[in-house]
Amino acid sequence: MKKQLLVIGVTMAGLVACAQKDMTAAQEAVQEGHGYTPKGYVQPKEPEVRERLEWFKDQKLALMMHFGLCSTIGIRESWALSDADAKWSRKEIDWTKDPDEFKRQYYGLIRSFNPLRFEPAKWATAAKEGGFRYVIFTTKHHDGFCLFDSKYSDFKVTSPECPFSTDKRADIVKGVFDAFRAEGLGIGAYFSKPDWHNEDYWEGHGIGRTVNRMPTYDVKKNPEKWACFREYTKNQIVEIVRDYGKIDIIWLDGGQVRRGTPLDIGIEDIIAAARKYNPALISVDRTGGGPCENVITPEQTVPKEPIAVPWESCITMGKWWGYHFEDEYKPLRRILHTLIDVVAKGGNLALNVGPQPDGRLPHQALERMAALGAWLKVNGESIYDTRPMPPFRKGDWAFMRNRKTGAEYAIRLWSEAEAHCGRQALPGIEAAKVVHVGSGCEFACTNENAGAVIDLPSDFKADANADVFMIKR
What we know:
By secondary structure, the protein is an alpha/beta fold. It is 25% helix and 19% strand. The chain has 2 domains: 33-382, TIM Barrel (Alpha-Beta Barrel), CATH 3.20.20.80; 386-472, Immunoglobulin-like.
């Protein structure tokens, strides 16, 4: 999907009057990752969806998971199948230069996919203890391989071709959704609208021809074929929402399949059909614009300014979306600072982890999840249920207000080298005192032109990465 720089101008509902003035400049925020319609965000007309979006904005932290055929050998998910994307997506495909042979091998991974150590309850427990509030799990990526028992495809984990099909846990999506639901976490279903294994999108699965992200035929000249693909896509989306318990979010990827273009699949009709089973279903039709893009999704980036509509940055914990044997994971400080930055600007963070070929989560991911959870256990009141508060982000400080309690917070983001004591100025904030959330210690403030100032003693028990202070006016 191409990067788009597009603009919105929407007022943040429920933001207090003092924040509304400061948010004005941010209403024209530019999203640097995947974009959204230049006509602006469309507020859902369904009251159940609008109410659920307030729930969404309270959650703040999602565990995103890319899992599938690519995980088996640790290569890039799906994209290597596209000849037009070969230059960047096939860098690790060094065993063959024949694109058709590679495609046959990739699709043939269905005969190797066998995550025998898949224990979704352990995933869900790690997520719960890590402070995550909902999951976004890959039901089907662009390669078309279904991790659920779809009635509309044979290219799935429950196919007899797949060795895992004989396992009682074969319906992986069911196992994941049931386990996360049991921990009280929300459920998001990632679903690719393009399907490169479907004959009504890529004829011959793209083998024997040069393919890109688009269908292999002219949709305008063969509307019946495209109509079959539309119906197939609708059936699968409804199938997930209808048959896999309560789904909170349907997270639709593949922006080339979009409304108002030749590749229109009638997304409004599809979402309406899905909402017959869950009227409050949040639809994330990425880059599609219109009434089905209820949440906008910057990818691998955080906007420079607050965005005044529901949004969620999807960012990898390592460098890759799916599992990669040589992946390099971000340090906790970077992950935590990213979360705080996102929350201060009014968004959620979808932090991605790719499960291993055997079905376990990588130990590097589990270590970071546990450390993140330990910080949130102490300081979560400044993250969950919050909304942006001016001045939002200023230097090494982030500011937010809990919408339920009214409590106001300032978070000091520490670098590795600096001393965590001495004079600390809270830019743009006046306060009588602040209370350190981690210890309960109070610090009197002096107010200067630039804002409140506190003096942290040399024996201050600082967190290595970030400290939270409750502001008392």
